[in-house]
Amino acid sequence: xxxxxxxxxxxxxxxxxxxxxxxxxxxxxxxxxxxxxxxxxxxxxxxxxxxxxxxxxxxxxxxxxxxxxxxxxxxxxxxxxxxxxxxxxxxxxxxxxxxxxxxxxxxxxxxxxxxxxxxxxxxx
Length: 124
What we know:
It is a single chain. Helices cover about 0% and strands about 45% of the residues. By secondary structure, it is mostly beta strands. The strands form two sheets. It has a six-stranded mixed β-sheet, with no helix packed on it. A four-stranded antiparallel β-sheet has the order 1-3-8-7, with no helix packed on it. The radius of gyration is 13 Å and the shape is globular.
């Protein structure tokens, strides 16, 4: 079983940046991808971004395309989400999640593993 620990959230002004980190333990190459989803109060989960394990192919939801960048450090088993030009609509709890099978970048199914989340608040 994979354990995922997120960090890096916080309060930032509109237009600001944050970098989220996800440290994975027990991660194996059997997983198709690892990624991020978010959930704001009163809203459904939203897939944000993912990166495939074998080829490093990335995916972004249209709301963050061009502003967010996902990357990974395989040696350290860390996945990053660099978030730039943040706006209030990005406010949510961000979760790191596994994807055992394609597609990734969607809200995870119940059998996936995800972390405890990190809060991102964009406000002036």
